[in-house]
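Help needed: design a sequence for this.
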């Protein structure tokens, strides 16, 4: 069933989805990656949202860093492996005059790092930074020092030219020796819990539950995911250029749909049904799967196929009988569509207009919306 979610893509922009019959892919998102704003009543891509961090912590030592706004890694000696991102075990060895050296060993792979002998106590991250003496890191330091030293009152263009000259000079000088880079223990990245808001109306689209601090479980307080509100649209091939368009209703109420598929010079379509009603979704999962997606691999799916198809179980679709493959289920519909195009793969734009009966939800009692969905037909 997962291909239903990835096959169904939604065009998230206020502008028209076509530019000379080409769909602008920058605004095209899989419906599984979208939110649904209960106030704007439209699907929202991540770029149409903003977030606020509700909690920020290190998942290794559990220190709370929520108030440290600019901190993104743990400063409490938690390090991860630069090869495999697993945690590093840290141990130390004593040397003469109270000096020490530190060993970092990956708990998963063979990565191992040993610091030189340190005479004065200092944070591990400073010790590691001082170890970064390979040619690549030295070059990076030179460039950042040069940037820091640049007079900020200079015009940006002049500064940029100076920096570019410096970088090219360095790389010419370094051409003789191979720039090598070593791998050092990396400070562990912090884990964040975020609330996500609609950029147009500031409504909360997603909020985590932060009941235990630190919040180690992924419990959710609010979530408006598009796949829970908008019909899943997918296509399945019948024969040659004849396909089925499948619509599945994820809601617990009836949905009234009106679809429009515009023809263009590259692609003409013929479809008989453009207005239809989908029933509420059932808890009996097998009943909610369009026949095109039922397989004979499990006994439950096979018996449902026999129940639905009976004597027509092994009927092959032909150019004459394809209308018989029109089918309506409990919360879904499969409509035959003829797609005429010279292209092997067609991106079919479908304008979807929908309303639903009253929803049993506090913040979202009714959906009335329209949007563009793009389905790939092969
Ligand atoms: Zn909104
Ligand atoms: Zn930590
Ligand atoms: Zn490792």
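Sure. Designed sequence:
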């Amino acid at each position: 069933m997962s291909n239903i979610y990835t096959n169904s893509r939604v065009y998230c922009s206020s502008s028209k989805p076509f530019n000379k019959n080409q769909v602008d892919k920058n605004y095209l998102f899989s419906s599984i990656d979208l939110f649904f704003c209960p106030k704007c009543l439209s699907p929202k891509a991540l770029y149409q949202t903003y977030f606020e961090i509700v909690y920020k912590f290190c998942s290794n030592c559990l220190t709370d860093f929520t108030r440290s706004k600019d901190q993104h890694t743990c400063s409490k000696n938690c390090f991860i492996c630069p090869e495999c991102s697993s945690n590093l075990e840290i141990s130390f060895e004593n040397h003469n005059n109270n000096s020490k050296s530190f060993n970092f060993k990956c708990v998963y792979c063979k990565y191992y790092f040993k610091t030189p002998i340190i005479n004065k106590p200092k944070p591990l991250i400073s010790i590691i930074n001082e170890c970064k003496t390979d040619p690549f890191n030295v070059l990076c330091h030179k460039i950042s020092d040069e940037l820091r030293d640049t007079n900020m009152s200079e015009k940006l263009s002049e500064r940029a030219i100076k920096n570019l000259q410096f970088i090219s000079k360095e790389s010419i000088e370094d051409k003789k020796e191979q720039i090598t880079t070593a791998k050092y223990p990396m400070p562990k990245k912090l884990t964040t819990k975020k609330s996500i808001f609609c950029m147009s109306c500031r409504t909360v689209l997603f909020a985590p539950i932060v009941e235990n601090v630190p919040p180690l479980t992924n419990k959710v307080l609010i979530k408006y995911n598009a796949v829970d509100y908008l019909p899943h649209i997918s296509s399945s091939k019948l024969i040659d250029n004849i396909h089925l368009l499948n619509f599945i209703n994820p809601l617990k109420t009836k949905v009234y749909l009106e679809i429009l598929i515009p023809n263009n010079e590259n692609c003409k379509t013929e479809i008989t049904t453009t207005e239809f009603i989908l029933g509420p979704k059932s808890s009996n999962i097998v009943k909610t799967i369009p026949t095109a997606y039922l397989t004979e691999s499990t006994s439950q799916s096979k018996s449902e196929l026999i129940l639905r198809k009976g004597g027509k179980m092994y009927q092959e679709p032909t150019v004459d009988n394809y209308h018989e493959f029109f089918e309506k289920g409990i919360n879904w519909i499969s409509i035959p569509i003829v797609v005429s195009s010279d292209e092997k793969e067609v991106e079919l734009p479908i304008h979807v207009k929908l309303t639903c009966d009253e929803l049993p939800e506090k913040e979202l009692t009714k959906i009335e919306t329209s949007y563009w969905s793009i389905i790939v037909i092969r």
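DSSP finds five helices and 24 strands in the chain.
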